[in-house]
């Protein structure tokens, strides 16, 4: 359960993008192991991300997206990024993407970040559904979303193609309701 702040959970918190986050975003966005899964063909430049950070507007419904930096008060730099995108005010839905730096993976950081984001989406944005697109080969991400009680609801066959293989995109979703401990979907 989150402590006194909506976007806090113990030592972890989600906060808006600041101009000084450009280097951390560049390092995370430049991880080539994530490119096929993110649909990227080339890395962003540090200059692009500095401009993005300087011009960032945290207005989820006007912009259709929201980027939050995941920080640990025990560390001097962001440990991850979590994004909402294709936010629909009329349908009250959004897609979620998450990147945790490799050295912070496997210890519950991603799950806590998703829980904070879900609480924020439910309580402040009044969203009713979050969904994620996950490359079939991204076992860690599939495990993360399953542990966070997202259910697999579809598959886009051979959606991602690289020079040496193709992968399906698996669709996961979670119905946000007033009780986060209740079942994530009904039959």
Question: What would you say this structure looks like, in words?
Answer:
This protein is an alpha+beta fold and 187 residues long. It has a single domain (8-175), classed as 3-Layer(aba) Sandwich (Aminopeptidase). Helices cover 27% and strands 33% of the residues. It has helices spanning 22-29, 35-38, 46-55, 60-63, 109-123, 139-147; strands at 8-9, 12-16, 65-72, 78-88, 93-100, 129-135, 151-161, 166-175. Strands 1-2-3-4-5-6-8-7 form an eight-stranded mixed β-sheet, with helices on both faces. Strand 7 (151-161) and strand 8 form a beta hairpin. The longest helix is centred in the middle third of the chain and has 15 residues, at 109-123. The chain is globular and about 40 Å long. Residues 180-187 have low confidence and may be disordered.
CATH class: Alpha Beta
DSSP summary: helix tally: 6
Shape: globular
Radius of gyration: 16 Å
Q: Strand share of the residues?
A: 25-35%
Largest sheet: 8 strands, mixed
Topology order in helix (H) and strand (E) letters: EEHHHHEEEHEHEE
End-to-end Cα distance, whole Å, is 27 Å
Structural class based on helices, strands and sheet pairing: alpha+beta
What's the overall average pLDDT, rounded? 83
- Strand tally is 8
Poorly predicted segments: 180-187
CATH superfamily caption? Gcn5-related N-acetyltransferase (GNAT)
Helix content: 25-40%
Per CATH, the architecture is: 3-Layer(aba) Sandwich
User: Any idea how many domains?
Assistant: 1
């Amino acid at each position: 359960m989150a402590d006194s702040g909506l976007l806090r959970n113990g030592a972890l918190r989600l906060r808006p993008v600041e101009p000084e986050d450009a280097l951390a975003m560049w390092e995370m966005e430049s991880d080539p192991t994530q490119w096929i899964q993110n649909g990227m063909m080339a890395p962003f430049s540090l200059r692009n991300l500095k401009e993005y950070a300087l011009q960032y507007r945290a207005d989820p419904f006007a912009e259709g997206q929201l980027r939050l930096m995941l920080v640990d008060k025990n560390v001097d730099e962001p440990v991850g990024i979590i994004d909402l995108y294709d936010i629909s005010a009329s349908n009250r839905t959004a897609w979620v993407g998450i990147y945790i730096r490799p050295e912070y993976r496997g210890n519950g950081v991603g799950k806590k970040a998703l829980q904070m984001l879900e609480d924020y989406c439910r309580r402040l944005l009044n969203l009713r559904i979050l969904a994620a697109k996950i490359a079939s080969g991204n076992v860690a991400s599939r495990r993360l979303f399953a542990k966070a009680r997202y259910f697999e609801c579809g598959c886009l066959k051979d959606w991602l193609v690289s020079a040496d293989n193709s992968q399906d995109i698996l669709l996961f979703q979670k119905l946000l309701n007033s009780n986060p401990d209740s079942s994530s979907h009904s039959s």
